[in-house]
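1st attempt posting a full record on here, be nice pls
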Amino acid sequence: MRVDLHTHSTASDGTDTPAELVRAAAAAGLDVVALTDHDTTRGHAEAIAALPEGLTLVTGAELSCRIDGIGMHMLAYLFDPDEPELLRERELVRDDRVPRAQGMVGKIRELGVDLTWERVAAIAGDGSVGRPHIAEALVELGVVASVSDAFTPEWLADGGRAYVDKHELDPFTAIRLVKAAGGVTVFAHPGAAKRGRTVPEAVIAELAAYGLDGIETDHMDHDGPTRDRLRALAADLDLLTTGSSDYHGTRKTCRLGDHTTDPEIYGEITRRATGAFPVPGAGGRRP
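the predicted structure (as tokens):
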């Protein structure tokens, strides 16, 4: 069984529609894929409608969090999307995305780059606008060579010259809300140092004591020593360990299934969840 628990569609900052993503996941030989767009569940219905036979969909979202000035992402799986308090927080984050992105465009223009909000909005389309869309616009202008190269202190990294804060959840609050909605929480790419400051292990231990279910260990932004360190930390804290592609379509170089989650750990995630259940494919349809 091949399980990829972290992907993005055009509902946030991926380049595949939800329907295209599940078809690509099946073509890549996956048995299970999680759709975890940033702070939204808007792509789930389309993904379910197009779900090919033989592929199971795990519904989820990647929640924007911040603690002690450090940005972090919390993967939330199989929660009730209509739970009022969690829904309200997701909407607050989503509604702050446009003014935040406009502020970053303004800063970039002040740095001498002829970037327009209209172009960023066109790249985002119907998705939740975010830094990857701005990064793609910078690639188009030849300012940086790749989307990843825009996520540096020079440009869009946390605290970078063009960075602008947005509404983000305290991770302890995120854990509480996801648990209340029947979901499971996994700290996404906790060792991705090239993205900026990372959360100290002492704080991860506090999150584990509060109810964090797991950490994402196998990820494109983790080198071998980082993965080994995170596995040891997870063992010490009795946390689940996951692996995933963090697929964004053509916006990143990673491919579906580049990293996967142990089927037994996937089974434990589904056992812990009560807010929603994995959806088995029934053949799907083209929207």
